[in-house]
Amino acid sequence: MSSSDFEWGIKNGDLEKVKEAVEKGVNVNDPIDGRIPLCLASDYGQLDVLNFLLSRGADVDVSDKFGVSPLLAAIYEGHTKCVQSLLKAGAKKDGRAPDGSTYLEAAEKEEIKALLR
């Protein structure tokens, strides 16, 4: 399975395709074109994929080539359930966005702000 198939599975929430890739040896922490798989799942709001990647040892506090962590990706896109899952998995709330703003400042949704306080 190619990394593009793995990436497609992550972005589109195809959990079976993601599982198949991991079972065939794809490392859940290896970047795809500079983006971390967990960041992609967070960015696209794919909660089931995100939880699977976490269960397979995905690093919650790594940043991609843009300086965006999985938690920040979920915050930016307003994916509350992904934010909750990442925090439960131990993601640090006190990070900063590439522009220097705090995660709390980057959040627009009140329910996400409440999770970050």
Automatic annotation (TrEMBL):
Q: Which InterPro entries match?
A: Ankyrin_rpt, Ankyrin_rpt-contain_sf
Q: One biological-process term from Gene Ontology?
A: protein K6-linked ubiquitination
What's a single GO CC term here? BRCA1-A complex
Q: A GO molecular-function term, please?
A: ubiquitin-protein transferase activity
Protein name in the entry? Myotrophin-like
Q: Which domain of life is it from?
A: Eukaryota
Q: Which UniProt keywords apply?
A: ANK repeat, Repeat
| Protein's UniProt keywords contain Repeat | yes
Q: Where are the transmembrane segments?
A: none
Q: Does the keyword Ion transport apply?
A: no
Q: Where are the ANK repeats?
A: 33-65, 66-98
